[in-house]
Design goal:
161 residues, mainly alpha, Rossmann fold, 2 domains, 10 helices, 56% helix
Length: 161
Amino acid sequence: MRVVSNTSPIIALACAGRLDLLRDLYSQIVIPNAVFDEIAVVGAGEPGAREVVESPWIKRQPALNGPLVTALRLELDAGEAEAIALAVESGANLILIDERLGRRAAQRLGLTVVGTLGVLIAAKDRGLLATVRPVLDALRADAGFWITDELYNAVMQAANE
């Protein structure tokens, strides 16, 4: 399975101390240069930076479709645009992206999209998490991940908790 990730799922899960879930669920994820730069260069010393540089299961690959990246940059940031372009050009099975505009753009291009909260539900379904609540709470408290009470409850319900 080929999985491309944007910045936010990596940082959020690293802040919550559960970046391992991406490795355990997908074996390998691919990130474009802009995502690498956002995490490892701009965010040097922050959660996720060391892992992106050192983890053999996180692969860096440039997005080569310049015209698509340019078109996507009209509405998205560099990391989202490159992640979507890379997912399209590499025939990825899945793109990990949280931001609403990015998710919509990826879906318009026929990509299957999962966000950080979907990763938690998948991890619970696969037996990688006993409960999602502690990770959801860590996302809110430690990662500054904005989750409404309604969405929190929907995730809990989807995880059968």
